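Treating backbone geometry as a discrete language has practical consequences that deserve illustration. In the encoding step, the backbone of a single protein was reduced to a row of integers, each denoting a local shape. The amino acid sequence and the backbone structure tokens for this protein are reproduced below.
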Amino acid sequence: AHCQYFGVEQHDENSLIPIIERECEKGSVIHSDEWPAYNNLNAIGYHHLTVNHQRHYVDPGTGAHTQAIE
């Protein structure tokens, strides 16, 4: 697994998606929380897995987590 971190001033889709498209190959698996800026990742060619931190730290159905970046 490969994890990258980028500091950004804006946390919206228009700011985050171009970074993802520049740094991640299409078809990559991306784990995130349910932040709305990531909602279209599946539609643009990524395999997006989410975890709802109010329910779990690791999604029991998919294994999705964000522990590698926190």
